[in-house]
Amino acid sequence: MRTFFLIAGLIFWVNSLAQIDKTKEPLEFFNGTIVRSYAVNNEFPDHMLVGIKGEPGDAKVYHSPDSGTNWKVLNSDQPLCDSCEDVQTVCFLDDKTFLAGTWKNGLFISRDNGKTFSPIKKFPAKDIRSVVRAPMGTLFVATTSHGILASEDSGKTWKNTHDAELIDELACWKLCIAPKSNNILYALTFDNGVYKSINSGETWDRVIYEKDVMIWDLAFIENEIYAVGGSENENYLFRSYMGDKNWRKFKLNIFGNVNSLNIFKTFNDYFLLMGTWKNGIHKSYAIEYSLQGFSCIPIIEEDTTGVSQVYSNDEYVYNFTWGDGIKRFERAKECGLDIPRFTAPGNTNFDPFKIEPTCPLEYFFLRLYDKNGEEVLRDSSTNVMGSNTKMNSKDNFKKPGSYIYWIKASFKDEVDTFSVNGYIKVIL
Length: 428
What we know:
Elements: E1 27-29, E2 34-40, E3 48-53, E4 61-64, E5 72-73, E6 87-92, E7 98-102, E8 107-110, E9 118-119, E10 128-133, E11 139-143, E12 148-151, E13 159-160, E14 172-177, E15 185-189, E16 194-197, E17 205-208, E18 214-221, E19 224-230, E20 235-241, E21 248-251, E22 258-265, E23 270-276, E24 281-285, E25 289-290, E26 293-294, E27 297-298, E28 307-312, E29 316-321, E30 326-330, E31 337-338, E32 342-343, E33 356-357, E34 361-369, E35 375-379, H1 385-391, E36 401-411, E37 418-426
Parallel strand pairs: 32-37
Antiparallel strand pairs: 1-30, 2-3, 3-4, 4-5, 6-7, 7-8, 8-9, 10-11, 11-12, 12-13, 14-15, 15-16, 16-17, 18-19, 19-20, 20-21, 22-23, 23-24, 24-27, 25-26, 28-29, 29-30, 31-33, 34-35, 34-36, 36-37
């Protein structure tokens, strides 16, 4: 089961979590342009790439070193080729080496920080849909004509990962690598559902399939997997654990076909962001579902933007659009309590116990109980200093073990009082 940021059992929400800051207008880039693809550098997450779709000669790649505040066109302000019109995927190999896959013109590489791009002549496919890099460096490429190909030498040589009879089944829209894995791949195919490989693409098993349902995107929360897709009239979210057993399907109450998914962490939980072809971005708590389906709300009311991709980091939500360029929204400040998992009162070998609120408190009240339900201590202080001092005093604890806490508090900028329940480990 998923554990929350603080401790299992924590059960409060703050309304501003994961909201965009509606007091600030979004920054907009490339107005009137289809932003077809994006990539974030895992080692330097402020660095981003985007690929553009348009008419022949419009297929360009842009780079940002500062989370999208400034953009520079690469390849000396030239398209990847004169007939190139759609950069369907981009990827960082490292901070100076980039890949760009096109619709009909094959795979391109830059080894000089984007100054120049050149086609990879020995790459067999022309329609490149997705490029991903495993943590150990292996490159995997999804194509519509040659299935899944891989390179172990930064794109110099390539080979099919699977037998030839799987090429048609693995005509692939998108590839995903499981978190912290080098060899667990998910292939989102055209009309054949989602396939999984646990051996770097050598063999594949289909894990999701429904007739007339296209699976557009997939994302992970620790040991959980989420996928979005739909038919002509319905949108669905699929959810499972890493073993890919007991997949559950939920309806999404979203008007407009869902085509993209991003999951990001708030202070206390996870949010799903779902892009649509014609109705902007919608969001939902990762646990906010019922028998009827997931409850989703638009991040902007009555938004008719066509979304190509959606992404979020700690500061911003990015809408890479189908014709309106990039819209970057600031995320609202999140309020929460950072509560340590354990305390070692009086022990100088451990950092002192320290409850820290991320926003000023209006009210704070703590009770701590031992495993028998006996109250061990209580404190009330808007700066939580009293509680931290008592939790670091050996005089308040007689035995090591698990202790249950209950905190009631409110932030100055929030209307409602919230409650937090959880436990800590005490080491004496």
